[in-house]
Specification:
It is built from six helices and four strands, in the order H-H-E-H-H-E-H-H-E-E. The chain has helices at 2-17, 37-53, 63-79, 87-97, 114-122, 125-131; strands at 60-61, 102-109, 137-144, 150-158. It has a four-stranded mixed beta sheet, sandwiched between helices.
């Protein structure tokens, strides 16, 4: 019963924060871009520093979330725009590998520094709420497209 209640909470959270579009991923091959690891670490450090300043816990890096953040960043690069497309699928995939109570994500594009991406999220009520939310784990994927545009996906979850 506990697992069913957690799944219901997860599904509810997914629908509340879910994707802007329900466009399914088709069978198109999505090329992958290299990670900009230095920016990824900076975003994580800035978000965790902000959370500490608020008296919140720091977020622990999750390899599981990183896998799905990377896939989504590649998807956005191939699409050429920001999206929360297929968020419910990412949340379900994470939940299939680790026991979670809720999952959320922030995405960004065209910020050349981690600080700029953080400020962009901070100035958005919904993104700020996610960064400051009751989560335990996170992963940040940052990749650069062929035109020099940076794409960011940060996934959050609570065990």
């Amino acid at each position: 019963m506990k697992m069913r209640a957690q799944h219901a909470v997860l599904v509810l959270f997914v629908f509340i924060l879910g994707s802007c579009s329900t466009e399914p991923i088709d069978d198109t091959i999505i090329s992958t871009a290299a990670n900009v690891v230095s920016l990824e670490q900076e975003v994580l450090d800035i978000v965790n520093s902000h959370r500490v300043d608020l008296g919140a816990n720091t977020l622990v890096f999750s390899a599981v979330a990183y896998e799905y953040a990377n896939q989504h960043t590649d998807y956005m690069i191939n699409k050429g725009s920001l999206s929360h497309d297929n968020f419910s699928s990412r949340a379900s995939n994470i939940a299939s590998k680790v026991e979670v109570q809720m999952v959320a994500e922030n995405v960004a594009k065209d910020y050349s520094t981690a600080q700029e991406a953080f400020v962009g999220w901070y100035e958005s009520t919904s993104h700020k709420k996610t960064m400051e939310g009751d989560f335990t784990h996170t992963a940040v994927s940052v990749k650069e497209d062929e035109n020099g545009n940076f794409y960011y996906t940060q996934l959050f979850y609570k065990e």
